[in-house]
Amino acid sequence: MLPGAITTPAHSADAARPVGAGASATAPAVAVRSGDANRRSLADSRRPRPAGNAGNAGTVGNGGGGLVGLARPPVKLPAQLDVQAGYAGQNSCDPTDKPGSVAYGQLLTSIYPAGVYGISRSCTEYGTSEHKDGRAIDFMINAKDPAQRKVGDAIVNWVTADNGAIARRLGVMYLIWNGKFWGGYAPEDGWIPYQGSNPHTDHIHTSLTWDGAMKRTSWWTGVALPVWDRGPCVAATGEYAPIYLAARTSPCPSPLAALRTSHATAVLGSSGAEVTFAQKLLVGSATGTFTSSFWRVVRDWQARKHLPVTGVLDQATWALLDPASRR
User: Where is the domain boundary, 177, 196, 221?
Assistant: First the structure.
């Protein structure tokens, strides 16, 4: 795949939508931009962006005329913009709503009070999605309704105007709305056709940078960020990254070769024989379901054993938990 191509991870089937502010989102996986070593994906299937520059650097729809100055920041904004962040896709399993994601959802609700939003979704869903690390927000609004489409167009055009000035202040990594995609890490591409199976006509999808998700950008703090947070690093090829703990502004080192065992990797929300076996080893009894409480057990055990704290029954964890399973 050529560096810099726009790619789309395979989508899982659509599930139930959020029913109120802060409800768990179940949107499909989202478009990503590949190229450098930090643009990794756990998805198995991708579709390349169409050849040529299909972007539209202007606005979507009719420009959302009539809605000007959509929101007021809670602090005085500095003259300088936050640094333009690169792409840092989901590589960990941590489906907990991040503070900046909640604040962003509330911001959109203040613009359109009839809208509701959802953030986190299960790591068992197929594909790569920042919903799985609490950095993606689905704001429910209907592009097929002319009045709602006008509001949706106004929101995305406000965020992306002036080469993405507000996007940088909010930490917006990319947007998907009404069949179009816009990347804050490549605003010069403008709006391009979205290639996923769900055209996003019933919601605006926003994926945030880690700075945006942790509410560190100038919209919230009044201080422009000079460097961007690249997020957690994958320790071994094909494994999940540790759960986010702190900002990291340097590139990730090359991952090590992964250990291999006879066990399958299991994540929060999964169920079956592998989860049952691990529960018996770690807690002495088993439900067969990877619950939130068992997620904490796995994380605590990984920390005590000085393993990457991924919260996942990954190959490194299995190799220490069941040494006889190593290949």
Answer: 221
